[in-house]
What we know:
This protein is mainly alpha-helical.
Amino acid sequence: MPETISNHARLGAVSIEYLVRLKYVVGQSTTWSRGTEYQAIRGKILDVCQECWSKLFNEAALFRRIYQGKTLSEADILHLRTLLRTTSGTFIALHELLLFLPRESIRRELRDYCECLFRPEFKTTKISLMLTSLFAAFEYSLDEVMRFLEADVFKSKVPKRQVLPFGNVLELAIVDRSNPLAWAVLAHEFGHYLDHTSDITKRAVDQFVKKRLRGKVPESFITAWKRLCSEIVADLTGYYLLGPCSILPLVNMSLLVGCLRDLPIEYDREHGAPTTRVLMIRKLCEHDGIDAGRINPLLDTLIEEETRKAGELPQKEQQNRTTIEDFLTDFFDAVRPGILRELKARKFRQFTARDYKNAESLAQNLANGLPVGSCRSHSDDEVREKLLTPRGDDWTWARKEYHLLTEHAVGVGEVISAGWIDRIDLTADLFLRAFSEPDQEKAFSYIAKRLEEHDDLILKSIDMIPILEAQNAP
Length: 474
Ligand SMILES: [Zn+2]
């Protein structure tokens, strides 16, 4: 097995995983298979996925070479890119079709995940968690929606926000319902919730204007900076609560969308280009002493893909990209300290360099098939030393020392980070074995089963956390 795999191998893994997950989710759902009115749409989704998967499996020999780390010819690369373009396009179109099927509920573990990661500011009476047929994650304030509607539709029927607040909504793509690693994106969306409910952006931009510019600034500039700043608040919240893995769902989504594009993904007047956002996360890691080397293979793939595409742009557009990136990183440096101060003033559990180190060793346990939601409070050596050293023939004393085996809950951020590290590590093995299966059905089941097992291990780990916390609560 090659130690490192190529960007092509990573790109293939991302697109194929999404397609396999979608077909598996739709195929497995009993609710969707019952009502005859849904059969046609469900059947169509499964057929199109199948067709796409057949095309991919026809090229099993090419994929085996990719996951063995062999060098590809220009023609191979072109062929691979065409295949992945079809795969990504098919996935995105089909995911939207899920709109026509009954809405899926969220998993209980997702609520536990949010409660553990976002406390003490996560209240189910204020935030609704939902699944969306769009392939995206987002947050919005229902009160703002209602206020907007009040103008022409519900005039006088909408209660005032102060009297009856509607709360906020966090939405996650349906395909990620049972994929806890993808839930990392909600840490960013939760940042938008905090911002919506406490105006962090407004204070940060006011400070920026006061400190940097002093003079009069046109209102349009301030509005543009606020849009930018709110994304920085969200990214910083994600990083503060979950560490560098908070950016990985965005990286995966950008790699998937990137398969459909010849041009790099640009700054969209709100979000910086994904490459700029990765740069910001790397800056934060450097500052906090987090060596995120184990997740670099995924980050580097995105940077290299986007840089290659940017290199093909006309000189002037390349210059524009650099100017925007310089402005954004400069703006990020200016607003960051104030935003982090606000996050620190709240009672969140901050993700630290030590948590990342722990996650690296937990990843080893995951690789050995063990859930990682709990840890012994005493080291194995200490327990062995105290429990297994004879004290004469009478062993009844040992019972009094059983407390040495007590376990405590691991932080949910460490569990998710361990999951990401292990998933990045196992990619080559997963796909090489799948494309070595004798037929397409077996290959498909191999990927789906192995992903499901990995998801289950992490879901089980999340499941343990609130139980152990309640057990050990004073
Ligand atoms: Zn956002």
